[in-house]
Design brief:
This protein has helices at 11-24, 36-45, 62-72, 87-95, 108-119, 127-138, 146-156, 161-168, 172-185, 191-200; strands at residues 2-7, 27-33, 50-54, 56-57, 60-61, 77-82, 100-103, 124-125. The chain is of the alpha/beta class. The chain folds into two domains: 2-138, Rossmann fold; 146-200, Orthogonal Bundle (Arc Repressor Mutant, subunit A). The strands form two sheets. The protein has a six-stranded parallel β-sheet, with helices on both faces. Strand 6, helix 4 and strand 7 (100-103) form a beta-alpha-beta unit. It is globular, with a radius of gyration of 17 Å.
Length: 205
């Protein structure tokens, strides 16, 4: 069973999400927080598989907090839960280490699919954000998370999937997933083309 914690200052949102997730049987909500300070303390006591994290919180920016806790708990999988549909915010969240980005008005099925996908170490974007980022990619804008940039650098250095997994302390299947994401994001047919485009776009050097 996936363990999950929620950080949101709106109690109705927290209660609604907790009920949805619990009744679905997809995950167990082990704790909820209404600000970043209490979340910071709670994570030090017990780390969940997935953290649902609001962006606008009374004591800070959820995206900055995401970057902060990913440095402390790199294995923690984070989904940003928000009303913000802006490209710049979504891009910043993904660069900060978030694996998921879901709008609060998303359908229940989409929310649960996101939790399951992210728990496996795979990226999940709700439909509206996915379409937004696809539009930006069609305009020549490419965004990579810090982890994707790191893996791209290792690929460019000639490392195998197994070697990359050992370097970043992840399993081979997770690295394979990242490699698939790089192929899609860079619109590349193979690893050689991924590396070539990475250099051309100055995503690796």
């Amino acid at each position: 069973m996936i363990t999950l914690q929620i950080v949101d200052d709106h109690k109705m949102v927290v209660n609604s999400l907790s009920q949805l997730i619990t009744e679905s049987g997809v995950a167990t909500v082990t704790d909820v927080y209404y600000n970043l300070a209490s979340c910071r303390e709670g994570l030090a006591q017990a780390l969940p598989d997935v953290l649902l994290l609001d962006i606008g919180l009374p004591d800070g920016d959820g995206v900055d907090f995401c970057a902060e806790i990913k440095k402390i708990y790199p294995e923690l999988k984070i989904i940003m839960l928000t009303t913000y549909k802006e490209f710049s915010i979504a891009k910043r969240a993904l660069h900060s280490g978030a694996l998921g980005y879901i709008l609060k008005n998303a359908e229940s099925e989409e929310m649960l699919a996101g939790i399951k996908t992210v728990s496996r170490g795979e990226q999940f974007l709700c439909e509206e954000i996915d379409l937004l980022l696809r539009e930006k990619r069609s305009e020549g804008v490419v965004w990579l998370s810090n982890r994707e940039k790191e893996i791209l650098k290792h690929i460019a250095d000639g490392c195998t999937t197994k070697e990359i997994a050992d370097l970043i302390f992840r399993d081979v299947e997770t690295v394979r997933t990242y490699r698939r994401h790089l192929l899609i994001k860079l619109d590349a047919k193979n690893t050689a083309e991924v590396v070539k485009k990475g250099y051309e776009m100055k995503l690796v050097w």
